[in-house]
Amino acid sequence: MRTASGAQLDFGRLALLLVMLGVGWYFWDAPAFWPLKLLVVMMHESGHALATLLVGGSVDRIHLAADESGACLSRLPPGVFRQIAVYSGGYLGSAVAGAGLLLATFRFRLRRWVLGAASVWLVVMGVLYAGDSFTLAFCVGTAMVLGLGAKFLPDGAVDFLNLFIAAFTALYAVFDLRDDLWNSAVRSRSDAALLADLTYVPAVVWAALWTLLAVGLLGFAAYRSLHSRPQGLQMPAVGTRARGRA
User: Fold this and answer.
1) Among 221, 139, 128, which residue's Cα sits nearest to residue 174?
2) What are 148-195's pLDDT values in tens digits?
3) Which pTM was predicted?
4) Which residues in the chain land under pLDDT 50?
5) What are the phi and psi torsion angles at 230 (to 5°)?
6) d(CA 107, CA 35)
7) Would you say 226 and 106 are in contact if contact means Cβ atoms under 8 Å apart?
8) Rounded to whole angstroms, how far apart are CA atoms 229 and 55?
9) Which of 127, 205, 170 lies closest to 17 in space, CA to CA?
10) Angle between helices 80-102 and 191-199 (to 10 degrees)
11) N or C: which end of the chain has fewer CB within 10 A?
12) How far apart, in Å, do the first and last CA atoms of the chain sit?
């Protein structure tokens, strides 16, 4: 299938992505996936931290817990819009990370750079902001595993690991929105509830907005990732003459 721009749908990538999404969905509660879930929680809290820094605030510490919960404690300058940006940074940060991983893995084939960048990010977040020994140990330990994988795994294994992390992150970002925002009991204690108290806009409205933005971003990234870049058209060299002419 070819689009108007000439990009062609790569059915091999599509099949692989669907298989990995299916595996993640089916084995969602498997203990082996616990580190990946905690990794996405760290992405969520990193979204809060990055938004805090962008609006001129400071991050005190980040906490992760074994039950897959997390918290980012920060200080913000006065201003409603700054608070809106920081409260929204978590869920959108997870979606941005998922979209970025899809593009880096499928579209740009960055391979070992993906694992290397993830390792650096975890070390920086752990050393600078970890608020307890569990968070620090998880960040540093996971960074070491990913870094060793980037250095020593064969190319095929690196590609497989990257693709699975990308697919799982995208899946978790959607599940995170579903569980935290569309479950009324959980939503009352979520970032959406904090925004509702701040803006008087109901939490369910913020939930809908975040869901639309996240799904739209992930959908765009998947579309771009699953279409191969068109090959450049071959043009005749400048100064050549057509056959049969003087």
Assistant:
1) 221
2) 999 999 988 888 888 888 888 877 777 766 766 666 666 667 787 888
3) 0.81
4) 230-246
5) -65, 145
6) 26
7) yes
8) 36
9) 170
10) 150
11) C
12) 42
